[in-house]
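Could someone model NAP with this protein?
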Amino acid sequence: MGKVAFITGANQGLGFGLLQRLNELYTKEDIIYVGVRRTEEREKAIQSIINKGPKLEVLYVDVAKEDTIKSVKNTIVEKHGGIDLVISNAAARISPDIDNKDQVAQFVRTNNFGAYCMLKHFQPYLKENGVFIVVASSFGSLIHLKGHLHSLFNVETKSLEEINTIMSNYITSVKKGTATTEGWPEWINIPSKIGQVALAKIAAREEERQNANKHTSIFAVCPGLVDTDASRPFFNNMHEAQTPYEAAKHISNILQTDTTQFSGKLIQFGRELPWN
Ligand SMILES: NC(=O)c1ccc[n+]([C@@H]2O[C@H](COP(=O)([O-])OP(=O)(O)OC[C@H]3O[C@@H](n4cnc5c(N)ncnc54)[C@H](OP(=O)(O)O)[C@@H]3O)[C@@H](O)[C@H]2O)c1
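Reply:
Sure, complex below.
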């Protein structure tokens, strides 16, 4: 039986690079479900790829709407019984020109609660040797957070739902204007990325506890700096930035190794980044 993969946010940016790369690596026995949110981008994403082998099927998914994730899961599980690779890549953008109060809720809803819902619906259907990747960032490390906040993200003891509660409380703090005095960093991307990495670590912990014999891998990745519409407003010099395809290559290289060594970790360019 061929491999089955699902990528969210696959119509542009890193997600599209990942789609291009998987399209090269997979064979005609395999199928890639291409998760896109904006319907007008659906066909564009598919048509611009020269199909070198795998079947590509575009499915609508808005990760801020749990029912759309569930619907994709049902489609895939009914057809294939499970899934080999899930890449939770979709992410809302933020702008340095918009007050954090006005963008934090949508950002966390998409990037954190979205990643949670992806894990909730797909983790139970990972096939043997299946892989679940949360695209996060090197900013998703406790190194970037003041010490008194570290225990909120204790990945040894917390549940996925407890991380959601912490992120909900964080939204409230930002909206109330108390986040800075509570010690949270100014850039809302940092707590969000830490929350995402915590989800991957906790999901991997539970997977190891409950399904060790399935040899599945759940981990977070940082793609490094990638030249996309999302990153450009935050970095003046993009000369060093990778193209989405180049960044995707680093991630796909990981997939060609024994991925169980990465489970529960945050990985960049094939190496683990420290959590604290
Ligand atoms: N770029 C970098 O330098 C960099 C560095 C470190 C980490 N990352 C991480 O890499 C990931 C991808 O970043 P990127 O730079 O490629 O961003 P991007 O260019 O903004 O692409 C984001 C993708 O997510 C989709 N999306 C947004 N909201 C969605 C939702 N509610 N449901 C489903 N899809 C949604 C977008 O679709 P639409 O076209 O419909 O908006 C788009 O396809 C993010 O997690 C980001 O934090 C990026």
